[in-house]
Amino acid sequence: MINLLILNIALAISWAALMGSFTLPSLGVGFVLGSIFIYLTRSLYSGSARYFSRSVKWTKLVLLFLYELIVSSVQVAREVMTTQNKSRPGIISIPLIVRDEMDIFLLTNMISLTPGTLSLDVTEDRETLYIHAMFADDPDGIRQQIRDGMERWVIEATE
Fold it and tell me: Residue 5: pLDDT band by 50, 70, 90 thresholds?
């Protein structure tokens, strides 16, 4: 599967070289075209089905994270721009389902990148994550949202 990713990146770079433009959009188009090429010739590669199913899951993870990023940005911006103070900051402990170091790393960074939340610490046994939330008036709701949202998306993308 790693070989297919390297091939896809090489095809994207080749496309950008052919177009004479090493910009992000050019590389993105090259990556998409490379994916189509690999899909059309998938019978030549072992593990191509896994490559495409994981690609879909990673794309879903990125899109859902971007959605969460926009929603939380609007919520924080609304809080900052209005005179009403609706924020109830607090520290919340979240029991973790993920145990792999890279999965925890990905989850904690996604939480920290989302406006209004910040990952503080993970216990040594990797069972609990502590976060600071700007709107911590419903800790159980936040735990549920992270478990059913970001944590589940990370598990799906990395399994």
Answer: confident
